[in-house]
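thought: fold this chain, then report.
action: predict
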Amino acid sequence: MDSGSSGNESIRRKRGAAKAKFRRKVKFFHTHVEKESSSEVLRWIFEDVEKSFDEIESIHMQLIEQRDSTSMDNEDQYMDMLEDERIEVQSVTVPTGPPSIEKS
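observation:
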């Protein structure tokens, strides 16, 4: 195995760990929806989901930068699936769009 392949495998393991964390956050969110937690609590959890997704996306981009174009479809499908989960959580939390950021 060359150093590029081992580097890709290391990045994939990191991405897999980040995906597991993301999925835990999404599950936690759904648990609180079922409990009918307040919108404030759901927004807080949503922010955590967003941070987890951003982490996956960052690691994913590292992998994409090292990949050739022939394997891009599988990589795109991987992120599309996670993006769908993120959007579903967002739609429950913020039915009219993403949380606004207040500027001081």
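thought: worth noting. The mean pLDDT is 82.
final: tokens above.
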